[in-house]
Amino acid sequence: MTTESRRFEAEVAQVLHLVTHSLYSHKEIFLRELVSNASDALDKLRFAAIAAPALLDGDAELRIEIEVDRDARTLTIRDNGIGMTCDEVVENIGTIARSGTRRFLEALSADQRTGTSLIGQFGVGFYSAFIVADRVRLLTRRAGEPAAAGVEWSSDGTAEYTIGPAERPARGTEVVLHLKEGEDEFLEDWTLRGLVSKYSDHIGFPIRMRKPLDGKPGEEWETVNHASALWTRPKTELKDEDYKAFYQSLSHDMGEPLAWTHNRIEGSQSYTLLLYVPGAMPMDALFAGRDERHGLKLYVRRVFIMDAAQELLPPWLRFVRGVVDSDDLPLNVSREILQENRLVAQIRSATIKRVLDLLEKLASDEADKYARFWRAFGNVLKEGIAEDWSNRERLLKLARFASTAGEGATQSVSLDDYIARMKPGQDEIYYLTADSHAAAAGSPQLEALRARGIEVLLLSDRIDEWMTAHVHEYAGKRLRNVAKGEIDFGKLGEAPGRPATDPDAARPLVERLKSLLDGQVADVRVSQRLTDSPACLVLGEGQMALHLTRLLKQAGHEVPETRPTLEVNPAHPLLARLAAETDEARARDLARVVHDQAVLAEGGQLEDPSGFVRRVNALIAPAA
Ligand code: ADP
Ligand code: MG
Question: Does ligand 1 lie within 6 Å of residue 124's CB atom?
Fold first, then answer.
């Protein structure tokens, strides 16, 4: 092997360009990222040493060192962890075809100001070195390899890097930052100590710096962080600040967590849980699909086993961040073992329970925070309502909806609020789904209920239609979509100001409409839902909502054609006119206008929009 120059992959070069040219706020996070990489490398070595204890030979005290050379203006972050081979350096640092890279670019082009706070969340943390350095050298040797197998990598963060052999007596990795002009603050002892205690205090390994002597770094080392895993410390000893700082280093999120729960469980198995609800959707979760990179960090007896153990957390809690440290799982636990392990299944249900406890407490004690939580994660939690029947009742209790009695589109009404406001004679919870809040709030389907002062939940998130398909009741009350099936409004009392229609008197009109609209609708009937509008479209109870059908069609799915029923309001002047119309052609036009209006009111699209306009114009301004 000889030293050679290579080009970065295009996407890496793009990330580097952005990092060096547009990230200015929170520059100091580079230190957190490099220390976190060093800590990961120590975790990996400790894990590998379980099977191969010889890897630790001669140097068993795992540690991170931060060192400054004022004359050379360099800052070095060093670890005696797992190290890398030449191929690993190329793969991990030079050519990464990592999925995080592209997402980071997307997120960054969406909002450049937040770039520095994002960088660690997308698995591109190493590049943050180039925020403050115009040259970065990385020297490394894989544990277990001879000194001659060392590697030196170097780059100025533009298009190329060099890589070649190096003699490395000590195992592990050293990252040397040649600081840019104007970044001298990162040569200051107290600045660095401050950053370590702010961002890296709870790294589970000692971080050492030179003990100052006469205002300059001396020969002796001292540990500058707390150096014990936070979750292993007693709750009484920990302050909110400690939990918050640990959250930030765990999640690479600059923001504060909304809430957390920390528990030691002793029983048939023993483990520690530390779980956080973030203040906002973590960026990686926002940009990633539902099945990617979420889960908890898994430790077994303090030894790090894996990141993002998905088996410990259902997809509908993918926003939760945290740590599980088990006393009983085997150290050689793999993803395959996790999937079938009985202990893991128990931990997972305990995790769910703790998070739900935490959310319930937040909902009852801190309404504002809970509202923030629901805005950020409500849609994710709704997946749980659909998927997890064993927790459905608890999740439904936590759910918040917009409603005809609420404030605009804000989702603030709980099912318990709703039930408390139900009218005498009402025994069902009414809701309506639509593809926007405005479409739901303005729907003719609500008229009869509104006239009787009955509240309706207005559901307009994409997931709502799917969720409600799984939910049939809450607290013994049936949930009822007001746009589907026949609803008996009789038991809810008369709508004030509108006499009930006599179905017999309306029968000829209904029959006439059926023949005029032949083939366009499944059926025509007199509506109990309407007070002001002439007509609306109604589905059968099991039928898929029309807006969902449209959505699926647009996405290229094959969906069976649903033909809705047209419900009409015979008291409406348009229908009175239709009943009286003797000219068959004009009657047909009127019938189509009534039908097309119902389609529009539901948010649908007309098959023949220009025909609709022509027919409406003929109604408004009849030809002389
Ligand atoms: P992430 O840490 O999220 O994987 P980074 O960009 O911070 O992303 O690091 C990229 C990869 O480079 C790491 O996954 C690791 O394989 C390797 N790496 C970085 N720093 C070190 C180190 N100090 N020791 C060993 N490997 C490292
Ligand atoms: Mg990293």
Answer: yes
Determine the distance separating the centroid of ligand 2 and the alpha carbon of 120, expressed in angstroms. Answer: 6
Are both 278 and 177 inside the same structural domain? no
Instruction: Report the atom number in ligand 1 closest to the C-alpha of 77.
Output: 23
- From 173, 127, 132, 134, select the one nearest 33 (Cα to Cα): 127
Domain count of the fold of the chain: 4
Q: Which atom of ligand 1 is nearest to the CA of 44?
A: 25
Q: How confident is the model over 188-238, as pLDDT tens digits? A: 999 999 999 888 888 889 999 999 888 788 899 999 998 888 999 999 999
**Residue 173 CB–ligand 1 contact under 6 Å:** yes
Tens of pLDDT, residues 135-183: 999 999 999 999 999 999 999 988 899 999 999 999 999 999 999 999 9
**Rounded-to-integer distance, Cα 331 and Cα 197, Å:** 30
Residue 375 is assigned to a structural domain of this protein: no
Q: Is 569 exposed, middle or buried (0-12, 13-18, 19+ CB in 10 A)?
A: buried
Assigned domain for 181 exists: yes
Our answer on whether the CB atom of 79 is closer than 6 Å to any ligand 1 atom is yes
Q: How confident is the model at residue 284 (pLDDT cuts 50, 70, 90)?
A: low
Question: Which residue's CA is the nearest one to ligand 1's atom 16?
Answer: 92
Q: Is the CB of 363 under 6 A from ligand 1?
A: no
| C-alpha–C-alpha distance, residues 413 and 400, integer Å | 5
